[in-house]
Design goal:
Elements (H helix, E strand, L loop, with lengths): L10 E3 L2 E2 L5 H33 L6 H13 L3
Antiparallel strand pairs: 1-2
């Protein structure tokens, strides 16, 4: 997914390689990368929330506690 779409070449007419815009492929790859990143960050957030529960929710800063509370609204413990 991470390699540039411009290095790919596909046959476009009668199996003759021609200059083809790879913009659509690049945008699909970008979309998949974003979805993968969202999934990884969600897993990291769940792990962080569990770690906070071991340490103690009362020891968190205000902004961190807000982040934790909103996360737990989405994913229960």
């Amino acid at each position: 997914l991470a390699h540039p779409a411009s290095v790919d070449s596909i046959p476009s007419s009668a199996n003759q390689e021609d200059h083809v815009s790879m913009g659509t492929i690049a945008s699909r790859h970008a979309y998949q990368i974003i979805q993968n990143t969202r999934r990884v960050l969600a897993i990291e957030m769940i792990g962080a929330m569990q770690a906070v529960e071991y340490r103690g929710v009362d020891k968190m800063a205000t902004h961190t506690k807000n982040f934790y509370t909103k996360g737990r609204e989405q994913v229960s413990s």
